[in-house]
Amino acid sequence: MTTEVDYKPGLEDVPAAKSAISFLDGKKAVLEYRGIAVEVLAKESTFEEVAWLLIKGELPTQKQLADFDHDLRQRRSIHFRLKDLIRCMPAEGHPMDALHAGVAALGMFYPCPHVNDPGKNWDATLRLLASLPTLVAAFHRTRRGEDILDPRSDLDHAGNFYYMLFGKEPTPAVRKVLDACLILHAEHTMNASTFAARVTGSTLANPYQTIASAVGALSGPLHGGANEEALRQFEEIGGPENVKAWLEAKRAADPKFKVMGIGHRVYKVKDARATVLQEIAEHMFAETTRPKNYETALELERLCAGIYGPKGIYPNVDFYSGVVYQAIGIPTDLFTPIFAIARVAGWLAHWTEQLVGNRIFRPEQIYVGRTGVKYVPLEERP
Ligand code: ACO
Q1: Is 6 a residue whose pLDDT tops 90?
Q2: Which one of 185, 188, 264, 350 is the catalytic residue?
Q3: What integer is the mean pLDDT of 61-89?
Q4: What local confidence, expressed as pLDDT, does residue 287 receive?
Q5: Whose alpha carbon is nearest atom 20 of ligand 1?
Q6: In a domain? residue 7
Q7: Residue range 244-263: average pLDDT?
Q8: Which helix (H) or strand (E) holds 23?
Q9: Which residue(s) pair with 37 in the sheet?
Q10: Ligand 1 neighbourhood includes 226 CB (under 6 angstroms)
Q11: CA 161, 165, 171, 173 torsion-angle sign
Q12: pLDDT tens for residues 179-201?
C-alpha cells in the first residue's frame, strides 16, 4: 500500500518512463537530443532535421531528409472546413485554445482512430508536424480580419510559418532565428506537456487527441505560458532602472512571489536554452539599440542571481525567448503556440516511444477523505 512517505507532490524525482529521446543534466546545463548537444543543433541543424532525429532516433541521410521535407510540405494545407471552423472561433480567444480545438478537429478530418498501423501513425506524425503552423497562422489572420493564406511549398518550415502569419517572406536572418527557436523548444525530457502526451497516448487514444492533451498542458503559466508572462513582466517593469524597486515591492507584497521565466524543476543552473537565446538576442541587437525589454531582462537576471541564485533558481528557456520573438515581430500571445509548433516534435517522439511495450498510466493516490458515510435522502437534509 502507498504511504505518505512514497508521495512526491508534482511527482518530483519519480521516473514516469524509460526514454532514449533527450538527456538533461540540470546541474551542468546539459541538454542533448538523441545524444547531440542542443546548442550545436541550434547552430548547425534545421527544425526538420531535428524533428526526424527526435522521432526516428538518428540523424537522417540526405535522401531521408529530402523525402521527409517533401512529405511535410505536402501536408501543410488544412481542409477548407477546418478553416471554416477556425473562422467561427472568437477573435478575442487565446490562440492556444484555438490550437487545442484545431488539433483535436484535425483528427476528424484526417482520422487515425487506431494506433496499430505504423503507416497511418507515420502519416499522422507528418500531418501534425506540418499543420500546427497552418492552424496557428490561420487563427491569427482570421482574428485580425485577414484572409487565411495557403502554405507555400517553396519555403522551409520556419519560413513558411512566418509567411503564413505575415504574408511576406522572412529575411534569411529572421528565418534562422525562428528556426533556431523551434530547435531549442523541440524537446525537453519528461516535462508536464510531454507527460500529458504520454498519459493520453498510453490509453491508445488517437494521435490528435494525444497532441491536444499536450497543447492543453503547455498552455499553463507554470509551463509554456511563462514566456508570455515573462515579457508582460518586463513591460510592467518598464525599464532596467525600475527593476530593483519593482522586485522589492513584489516580494514585500507576497513572499512567495514568483518571477516569471526563472526557476525550473530540474535545472539548478542557467538553462542551456536561455544561454543560446541570449546569444541570439545579443547577435540581433549588436548593431541596433537594445530594446528596453531586453535591458530590463538583463537587469532582472542580475538582481535575481543574487536573491534566488543560492537556491538554484536561474533563467529558464522562457526568460529570453519572448524578447527574441518580439524583436522579429511575433505578437506576445503567439509565443506559446510557437512553443507548441516546436514541441510537437518531442511529443510525437514520446508518443512513438510510448506505444512500444505500452502500459496504460494508472498511478496510485493517497486517499484522505472519509469512508462509510451514510447517504441522507434529500428530503431529510436542511
Ligand atoms: N521566482 C521566485 N521564487 C521561485 C521561483 C521563481 N520563478 N521558482 C521557484 N521559486 C522558489 C519557490 O517559491 C520555492 O521556494 P520555497 O522553497 O521557499 O517555498 C522554491 O523555489 C521551489 O519552487 P517550486 O515552485 O516548489 O518549484 P517547482 O519545481 O514545483 O516549480 C517552476 C518549477 C514551476 C518552473 C517554478 O520555478 C516557477 O513557477 N517558475 C516561474 C514560471 C516559469 O518560468 N515557468 C517556466 C518553466 S520552463 C517551461 O516550462 C518551459
Answers
A1: no
A2: 264
A3: 98
A4: 80
A5: 311
A6: no
A7: 96
A8: strand 22-25
A9: 32
A10: yes
A11: negative
A12: 999 999 999 999 999 999 999 99
